[in-house]
Fold this protein.
Amino acid sequence: MPTGVPEPQLSAWRALLNAHAALVERIESDLAAADLPPLSWYDVLWAVRRASGRRIRMAQLAENLTLSRGGLTKLVDRLESDGLVRREPADDDGRGLHAVLTAEGTAMLRRTWTVYSRALRESFAASIDEDEARVIVTALDRAKRAARS
């Protein structure tokens, strides 16, 4: 069955998807075993942490994480109820909201990163050398640019 995609590139695509799924499964398993929240919580907290002033508009956060606004709202509801973020009105228009990282959120990021980084080190970083990592980054950055153009 012709796909229109050369076999080496199709195999690379499958390998990327399969590796991603296996790595995320490993990380999620390690987080659960350590009684930590899922990786999606870390992703949100890290995006807020990286933002200027450790605060980011909810709309921008949804774009950064490629989540629907509804999905992000539910996730931030859970983070807020656990005291990891708080919402504050945007100063510039009064309608928007910022997600703001709390001290508890920073502490959760640290605890989660300990487990997350160990899983990455053992299952991903140990599997590729620096030259391979550079090739992967270059190729995937090119693919990202092509997909967005």
In short: The radius of gyration is 18 Å. The mean pLDDT is 93.
